[in-house]
Amino acid sequence: MLGLLILRLGEDRREKQRLAGEMAAAAEMQSLMLPSAAIEGVEMVYLPATEVGGDFFQLLDRDASTRIVVVGDVSGKGLRAAMLVSLAIGILRNERTSSPARILSVLNEGLMGRSGGGFVTCCCARFDADGNVTIANAGHPAPYCDGRELVIESGLPLGIVPGVEYVESVVRGERFTFISDGVVEAENAQRELFGFDRTRNISMKPALEIAEAAKGWGQNDDITVVTVRRNTI
Question: What digits encode the pLDDT tens for the residues 170-182?
Answer without folding.
Answer: 999 999 999 999 9
